[in-house]
């Protein structure tokens, strides 16, 4: 079968798929046959980047938060992701459920107990195992799982959703760079961006699947008492997850992914409610209030803190936790960002940003409080340090924690179900996103393609587990996140350019001459529209149309005892002056205004303004400094009507006491 024949049977973009698969295969083989060399190479690279670019990670993530909040509060927030009349594809509850499941579901299960306990026994600045350490543990946990993490996802998601649904571009990373690269997004630069996003997504999801399978096997061993720690068990679990993910992905977003996400959210709420009720309820409710207040009080400091003034061990903590988190979220941004873009068509930008930043983050805060603070309380009041002692085995820590609550077997089984479904939703949504990148956003791709990518994710995760290459890949995450952070900054620039163009389209009004035009002399009007006026054309218009109209009005005013005159200041400029005692006089002027023709218009022979680098317009001006307008299409009678309209406005303001202050002010020159 030739490549051309295969292309007709798939939606693959081969300049993206072939290099991506070659890179994935090369890194996979290198990790399998040279695991120690791979780990050493990426560990050295990680150490170098964290030493010299930690400040950049902190700064860029803070910029993403400020950027999104600024857009949400601006006039751009009302723009819809799609046509102005677009309606959301999914109901609000389903949308939130899918955000939650795809974004951080697996991580919440893995780190909800593990991270607060590890910060308790090794806090960045507080004394170990003290109330201050507990408070700081929850503060930094909130910081790592709060709005900063979702801002990383939100930047990519908003850029893709905006250009995908508003500009009708493919739903791929390259489309977010359209304002910068223009048509080059269809060439090698665009292919390179998508190759990078595709490889990053495959390895990011595969790494998470690998760590998740280890937690799942630890949970099964803990609950059943059997040993599920063998590599054969891990591979079997991966195979099971991939099969379920394939079935879900084949059914589409509207069915499999949506249903699994809603079920998962309900199960998560059920498990959280159980821990809240069975655990120290009053302590947890009070802790939630304090955690929120502490987070809001320190959010600005946390956003820009990089431990420059703290001891070396604090800086090491910062690099091992905060920088790793930021890099991890950035590496997941193409996947999660594209997925939330896919499910957000029809929502306004403001609704998108508020929904993505605040709602999942608030749920994360509640989840981390219930599990994290409950674990800290149990460790200090019941277990007497047993959870702290087991903190090194994060895979099984959640299940060890549940043993201290009633109905441990039932709650552990529920947790296992949650972890499994989280894996499936991450894998199936990941397969769909990867297929979307590989197909350049083409709709109706064959089902087998999504199944193929689900299989690729399983194979990569299995190979890395077998070869012990997950640590190397974790280090690679920090390395790969650095250039993609730069790409995300470019996405911000491109989004601002796109929103600015969108606003200009919305604000663009019809020509002032359209207020008077009745459709008569339409052929003459069309000829004027298609003509690029020169300076001589404007001079002729002033002499043949503007000046006669002004002189007629000036003469009529003089006949009625009103001092008026027409002043031809130059070939480029003429004005009608009506003098008033003790008040600013009325001036209606027309001047030849020069404008540069954009380069793209000069290069486009279809556009009328494409012959010369400059065009000229007869533009009005007034004594009160108001913005003028182009009058080149007006006839003499229409000029008469426009002058009288402005003069009538001037007289109405002169008789208005509230406007007297400006009317007595000197005229603009």
Features:
BCCT_CS; 4 strands; 5% strand; cell membrane; Amino acid/polyamine transporter I; mainly alpha; elongated; 669 residues; 24 helices; BCCT family transporter; 2 domains
Structure description:
By secondary structure, the chain is mainly alpha-helical. It folds into 2 domains: 494 residues, Amino acid/polyamine transporter I (Up-down Bundle), CATH 1.20.1740; 142 residues, no CATH class. The chain is 70% helix and 5% strand. It contains 24 helices and 4 strands. Strands 1-2-3-4 form a 4-stranded antiparallel sheet. Helix 3 runs parallel beside helix 19 and helix 12 crosses helix 14. The chain is elongated and about 110 Å long. The model has no long low-confidence stretch (mean pLDDT 84).
Largest sheet: 4 strands, antiparallel
Residue fraction in strands: under 5%
Helix content: 55-70%
CATH arch. level architecture of the largest domain: Up-down Bundle
Shape, please? elongated
**What structural category arises from helix and sheet content?**
mainly alpha
Query: Could you tell me the number of beta strands?
Result: 4
Quaternary form: single chain
In N-to-C order, the SSE pattern is HHHHHHHHHHHHHHHHHHHHHEEEHEHH
Mean pLDDT over all positions: 84
Read across the widest sheet, the strand sequence of neighbours is 1-2-3-4
Named CATH topology of the largest domain: Amino acid/polyamine transporter I
- Number of alpha- plus pi-helical segments: 24
CATH class category label of the largest domain: Mainly Alpha
Subcellular location: Cell membrane
Protein name: BCCT family transporter
Organism: Undibacterium parvum
Transmembrane segments: 12-34, 54-74, 95-113, 145-165, 192-214, 234-253, 265-286, 323-341, 353-378, 404-424, 451-470, 476-499
